[in-house]
Design brief:
- The structure is a single chain.
- This protein is mostly beta strands and 227 residues long.
- It contains 3 helices and 13 strands, in the order ββββαββββαβαββββ.
- It has 2 domains: 19-60, no CATH class; 62-226, Putative cyclase (Glucose Oxidase, domain 1), CATH 3.50.30.50.
- The strands form 3 sheets. A 9-stranded mixed beta sheet has the order 1-13-11-7-8-9-10-6-12, with helices on one face. Strands 2-3 form a two-stranded antiparallel ribbon. It has a two-stranded antiparallel sheet with strand order 4-5.
- Helix 2 (146-154) runs parallel beside helix 3 (176-183).
- It comes from Rhodospira trueperi.
- InterPro entries: KFase/CYL, KFase_sf.
- One of its GO terms (molecular function) is arylformamidase activity.
- This is Kynurenine formamidase.
Amino acid sequence: MGEIIDLTQTFEDGMPGFRMKAPDGTVRAFTASVRPFLTHAESAPNYGGKASFEITEVRFQTSIGTYLDAPRHRYPDATDIAGLPLSSLILDGIVIDGRGATPDRPLSVADLPPAPDLKNRAVLIQFGWDRHWGKETYFSYPYVDRAALAYLKDAGTRLFGVDALNADNPADLERPAHTWFLGAGIHIVENLRGLEALRGRRFRFYAIPLKVRDAAAFPVRAFAEVS
């Protein structure tokens, strides 16, 4: 086995998530709750004081942390998380250096490698935005422009990942990354971290969620095995 590199943000109580603003200006914030459902002290009497166990309760919206979008996230009758074959979640990967992009200067076709280098791969964009995780700056992020998204789709990309809050330009209401990619069966992983360790290296990318029926998205343990 080669070197294993963890690409996942830590899932924890009160973690940052999306902020969704409704037309009336109301903002809904996504987060997670992680707490003991049954503590060691509470369970010890069940075992005559000879053993004790903790059971954890976790509550969250599924689009939080480092997570995977299934086609159902965009299309109501499309495949859910449970329906995704594992073979579509374990792919040869490539990291594209997008550190020159900003919220005002998106990544363009000129920043991408030749199409043959992208075919059948997990294409992961390193904006370097994971350095802002947990800060207000994280909510204003760089993105890939429409022409570059079309280029990636036409090149045969199998999975698209970013180390930022969203794969799409927040001002583009069509949400082309989600609309085009998920419509073509190309999965999306958001909120990656640590991609700098993979630049210029050969690796297999893994993004494995629980097998959850009717889930449109779900957190993953994302990692790479470097060959």
